[in-house]
Design brief:
This protein has 148 residues and is of the alpha+beta class. It has one domain. It is built from five helices and four strands. A two-stranded antiparallel ribbon has the order 1-2. Strand 1 and strand 2 form a beta hairpin. Helix 1 packs across helix 4 (118-127) and helix 1 crosses helix 5. The longest helix has 36 residues, at 7-42. The two termini are 15 Å apart. The model has no long low-confidence stretch (mean pLDDT 77).
Length: 148
C-alpha cells in the first residue's frame, strides 16, 4: 500500500480502491447471472422452430454511479438491446421486453415444473453464503489493506 501524506490522501485512495473493488465485484455477479442463464435456460433444451438471438443474455448491463460517498452498481437488463419478439410458438408470443422484466424482477419462469429465479438463485448461491464478501476482502487485501 502507498505512503500517505495526510488522512485525506488515505481516504481518497481508500475510496478509489473500494470503488474499483465494487466495480469488479459487480462484474463477477454479472458473469454469475450470465452463466446461470446459459446453464439453466439456454442449455435446457434445443429450439427446433426458431433460432436463438441471445439478446436477453447479452442485454445484462451494469449501471455504475457515485452518490455522495456511496458507490452504486445496478445490474439490470437494457431494454434498448432487446429488439426481437420472443420467438415463442404460442399464439400470442410475449415480447422479449416482458421476458426481461420477469428476470429483472426476480420472478423467473418455470422449466420442467421448477421455478427459475435468476436473481434469487444468484443471491442465495453467491451473496448470502458470504462469497461476495470474501471476494471483496480478498480484492482489498491484494491492494495492501490488512484485515487482521
Amino acid at each position: 500500500m502507498s505512503e500517505f501524506n495526510s488522512v485525506e490522501d488515505f481516504y481518497t485512495q481508500l475510496q478509489t480502491n473500494i470503488g474499483e473493488t465494487l466495480r469488479d465485484e459487480a462484474e463477477k455477479i454479472k458473469e454469475i447471472i450470465q452463466d446461470y442463464m446459459v446453464t439453466v435456460i439456454y442449455t435446457s433444451y434445443a429450439p427446433e422452430i426458431y433460432e436463438r438471438t441471445y439478446e436477453l443474455l447479452n442485454s445484462i448491463i451494469i449501471d455504475y454511479r457515485i452518490s455522495g460517498s456511496e458507490y452504486i452498481a445496478e445490474i439490470k437488463i437494457d431494454p434498448q438491446m432487446l429488439q426481437s419478439p420472443s420467438n415463442s410458438y404460442n399464439e400470442n408470443p410475449l415480447p422479449i421486453t416482458e421476458i426481461a422484466e420477469l428476470f429483472a424482477e426476480g420472478r423467473g419462469y418455470k422449466r420442467n415444473g421448477r421455478k427459475m429465479d435468476v436473481i434469487g438463485d444468484t443471491y442465495e448461491n453467491y451473496v448470502e453464503v458470504g462469497n461476495a464478501l470474501k471476494d471483496i476482502i480478498g480484492m482489498l487485501k491484494s491492494k495492501g489493506y490488512d484485515f487482521e
